[in-house]
């Protein structure tokens, strides 16, 4: 009888311990994610929807808290905070991702290399798996990649030719030292600032030209101080949502599968909305006075010649040699295949 009683007590005790362990294991993993994206924008709305799905994921779920509007500082600050454990995730542009892995520059820092969004998608599909591995080796797991279409030059005065750009005080991200030197080497006058300082910089005359997506320009009412836009696809604005590998490894495998699936769908939605909103934003600003300047074939050729001269400085400086060469080679092959299949 005593043996039976001890067995029952032991079984109850073991059951209690197991239930306690399950409760602890089943607690929501807390993830704090920071971004420069404005509160209430389609970007943060999609992140919030992702968070709702994450909370319901099998294996305990994840509690996602979003810090928009750059409230956690610049993207460099966000990466630093992730490394310190103050944040667990971030939705970053290439500017922020460069704080982790220089190879990501190939998706954004090659001006006028991508002719259209089809080429952006093609190179993304080829390069993103490679960059995922590089970022993971640096301690970060990619949840999704996305972009918001092409960036354009916005300026106080009309700007059409490369010589016009050289006469401006051009905003360059303070974290992009290589880009700063490249602009200087081709005769431009770049001014390094944080993204939060763009509007005050334009208002005070510290800068008079900015390159950014129309979506962001509309959000900060950039057109009220820089009412001219050059209609030229300069480069895509690419980004990714990343989570620290340390945090990711605390999440059960079955939960990881669900999180990845939801995150990838979120990335697709952000890309689709971002590209659509980029077009709509130009029209919205045009209605309130934005002057959109189209390029003539002659001016477009002049830009191509100027960019061609600068690309030798981009390779190995702004973009690692191997990444640059791979992208150029893949684009050549892609264009050749498109040309061979196009109707004569």
Task: Explain how this protein is built.
- The chain contains 13 helices and 9 strands.
- By secondary structure, it is of the alpha/beta class.
- Strands 1, 2, 3, 4, 7, 8 and 9 form a 7-stranded mixed β-sheet that branches.
- The longest helix is centred in the last third of the chain and has 35 residues, at about 255-285.
- The chain is globular.
Give a short synopsis of this structure.
52% of the residues lie in helices and 20% in strands. The relative contact order is 0.15.
How are the secondary structure elements laid out?
Elements: H1 2-25, E1 29-35, H2 42-55, E2 62-67, H3 75-84, E3 89-93, H4 94-97, H5 117-137, E4 140-155, H6 162-166, E5 169-173, H7 177-185, E6 189-193, H8 198-204, E7 209-212, H9 214-219, E8 228-244, H10 245-248, H11 253-287, E9 291-294, H12 297-314, H13 321-341
Parallel strand pairs: 1-2, 1-3, 5-6, 8-9
Antiparallel strand pairs: 3-8, 4-7, 4-8
Helix pairs in contact: 2-11, 5-13
Basic shape? globular
Q: Structural class from helices and strands?
A: alpha/beta
Proportion in helices: 40-55%
Total strand count, please?
A: 9
Q: What labels describe this entry?
A:
344 residues, alpha/beta, seven-stranded mixed beta sheet, two-stranded parallel sheet, 13 helices, 52% helix
